[in-house]
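Q: Predict the assembly, please.
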Amino acid sequence: MIILENVSKAYKAGIPALNDVSLHINTGEFVFIVGDSGSGKSTLIKLLLKELDPTSGDIIINGKSLNGIRRKQIPKFRRNIGVVFQDFRLLKDRNVYENIAFAQRVIATPTKKIKRRVPMMLSMVGLAAKYKSYPRQLSGGEQQRVAIARALVNEPKILLADEPTGNLDNHNAWDIMKLLDEINQKGTTVLVVTHNLEIVKAMKKRVITMKKGVVVSDERMGESHAD
Amino acid sequence: MNGWVKVMRISTFFYTLKQGIKNIWRNKIFSLASIATMSACIFLFGLFYAIVANFQTIVKEVESGVAVTVFFERGASPEVMEEVGAQIDKRTEVSKKVFVSADEAWEEFGKVYFSGDQSLMEGFEADNPLAESAHYEIYMNDVSMQSTLVTYLQSIEGVREVRSSDIAANTLTDFNRLIGYVSAGIILILLCVAVFLISNTVTTGITVRREEIAIMKLIGATDYFVRSPFIVEGILIGFIGSAIPLALLYVMYSRLVVYVGDKFIWLSNMLRFLPVKEVFSTLVPVALILGVGIGFLGSRLTIRKHLKV
Ligand SMILES: Nc1ncnc2c1ncn2[C@@H]1O[C@H](COP(=O)(O)OP(=O)(O)OP(=O)(O)O)[C@@H](O)[C@H]1O
Ligand SMILES: [Mg+2]
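A: Predicted assembly structure:
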């Protein structure tokens, strides 16, 4: 469960990037966040990761107020959240296997468990055969799959994706969105920021539209989960 | 520094070690420069230590031969002499005092000047020409305290004269002090250079890894995890940079001892080298701690400055 209560964020004195935003996102939901460039979508994602702190208001994730999390506790908090970006952000000097294993090493997972988990994730994203490849040897779509596998390897309850298909062609974009939907079906709460309105319309999910730091519409489309 | 002794999972330990080695490898030129400087530092330090340690034993030997002589007032009674002895015993810089009676002084004199010829000496039997020469020979454990001691001795009641050789004492003291200053100076300068270079190496490493560090933080890596490879990098540079010169010094020193012992036997009275084991049983741990410590410090300070995680 993600709750935003009157959250505002101003980078410097001036127009706020987010202005008094209140939102409820239930556990297990799939939510699209759309809006013009500069409307505050990435800012929202950064607030959810506690990369930034709100200027005012509070964010509550899984019953915990982010304002109450101390600096030392941030790493532990982030382990509950997987995150994917437009530019993949893979480690270029490590192969697919090591890129995914990396996320587990960071949280001191025993090697035995890493050896079990990584192949599982690789087959889930359909890259089992390419575990030895380096990022530069993969297509954009494949790189994003690796990034998704990395984001999910530690079994977070929430997956945040900031324009995960921004660098992909339509075909690959669809594949990634379907993969995210599958992940959501298995119980992970998924938040996807995107500019791809064609896919948004077709997938019939909850859509939050932002404009100049404000939520201007919040619709549930099609058969999407009820509140 | 808190947190650095935290217990690590074995797999994390090896991962961190591997990353630390990778840091050094990726950053070859800087790492090499750091290791080279570090080696130079430790080499000089070791060289210095070996010289000082050897010199110090020579000084010690000379020092133990330096004595202050205390003569008593004319006609001093044995009680007075004993009282003077008690006053001398109060001083901590005195390592040993030897009482030489007038008879013993005369005998000693006779041995030297009459070659112990009894008949020559018997002529003086009744009237010891050195009747007033009973004295204490005082040996010190710290020659630098000599002038203080002399002043003190002169103030004791019943003391007529205090004889000492200031030159020997002062020269030795000055030399010791000079060695102390020079060594402190050299070590300080080298320390700064080494810390600076290691800091530079680690800074470069952090810059190269910026992106990776950002990703690590988003994934939920603790500060400890992010920093550890850089600490390992510093420690490894320090370790390698002290192990190399130690090995070099070991070979050099043991060869020198053997060589001088072989070729310059006639020198062996004046120039007695400390055994290899004795020098290195102190030098090895000290140099390793110094090297590893500098490495740790260099990277720790840099991380504090550049890696505000
Ligand atoms: N680090 C920053 N410092 C100052 N202003 C910033 C910073 N990051 C974002 N902004 C401003 O905040 C506003 C919202 O930016 P944000 O990145 O959240 O937009 P966005 O909706 O993600 O846009 P896009 O679709 O182009 O990614 C913009 O006006 C932007 O210029
Ligand atoms: Mg954005």
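Chain B has two domains: 10-62+171-306, 67-164. Strands of chain B lie at 67-72, 94-100, 135-140, 159-163.
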